[in-house]
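User: Before I run my own analysis I want an independent prediction to cross-check against. Here's the chain; please return only the structure tokens and, at the end, one sentence I can use as a sanity check.
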Amino acid sequence: MLKLDSISKSFFQKLALDDVSLSINEGEIFGLLGPNGAGKTTLIRVINRIIEQDKGTIRFKGELLNDKHLSRIGYLPEERGLYRTMQVYEHILFLGRLRGMSKADVRTNYNYWAEKFGMENWEKKRIEELSKGMAQKVQFVSTVLHQPDLLILDEPFSGFDPINIELIQQELIEMKAKGKTILLSSHNMKSVEEICDRVALIHQSKKILEGSVSAIRDERKTGNYAVRFRGSMIAFVNALWTGFELIDKEILGEDRFVAHVKMRGENNFQDLLQTLLGQIQIEAAWEVLPSMQEVFIQEVNQ
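Assistant: Structure tokens:
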């Protein structure tokens, strides 16, 4: 869907993007990560042709990106830009018409999203009357109204409570299932972990990491496992003996625990379960992989 090759951009001799290359596949959710000031928003503005790169090329479905492709892109900027004195539907109509939609198509598509997001009674409300979360919904609807092939979202979960974050996540997953491609920049690592297929990490204007979420987490695993069980912690520790090391524990109740264990030597997960069987009542056991939050912090610090 989108191929960026050696993109560089400077502002007054300060390098904002340094030779950044990315490939975003059609029909995937791609996360663009990085600390504040890393260059994420600059890259998004270059893709949207708001600013022009100093060096490098961008291809949209194999063609060099140009203005004709913008009608197939939906963009939600980090800086929200709704006109405060306009009414909700008046605003939606205005932005839809800018995208080349007919009034009838704007009405049809707005009704679809208004029902989904519980916005049926908002049409006459002025933007300034809305809460931050309500205004966010209006801007999201404005972004997807023209049914773009590529959706670019800069901090889309900002201003939403957990219920509405879940709502937006589900909508993005549904759009992906319909073949849409989504590029999102977010500091919400939990959301990134849950919905992104692949991610790239930008730090100090350079890309320092790119890959699938599962592969990135798997590559950084440390051989730690967790076991939730009922029984005696003393019996659990005694069963481990020399093949495994208890590194942490959490008390869930009088005789219920979660223990974190590290393998020693050639021992594996199967050996751990065999060692514990008959000693305690195992409720669940799993490999502990680093979260995207932990990966993010580790990579940036390095």
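Sanity check: The chain is about 35% helix and 30% strand.
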